[in-house]
Amino acid sequence: MKKILILGAGGMAGHVMAEYLTQKPEYEIVRCARRTVTPDTILLDVTEFSHVDDVLGEQRPDIVINCVGMLTVVPGSVGSGDSDQQLSAALSFQTGQ
Q: Model-level pTM?
């Protein structure tokens, strides 16, 4: 049985991916998210890289699926500050390595 760890399992893409793969008996699914999705969800903020390393070391997945993301921020909207745009870019770049 392959162990698949899904980062961002609380978001739309991660949730759909986890639900789909859970139906496949050949996979063990590990959900990681910033909030509890299921009772066995591992709470994880991917911007805390040492914690990500710890979780990967503890879980030792065969496959990691990165569904972490931040919607594009529209200039002038709530949450459209430079720090939000920088975080969005950092998440997309840093977790894609």
A: 0.76
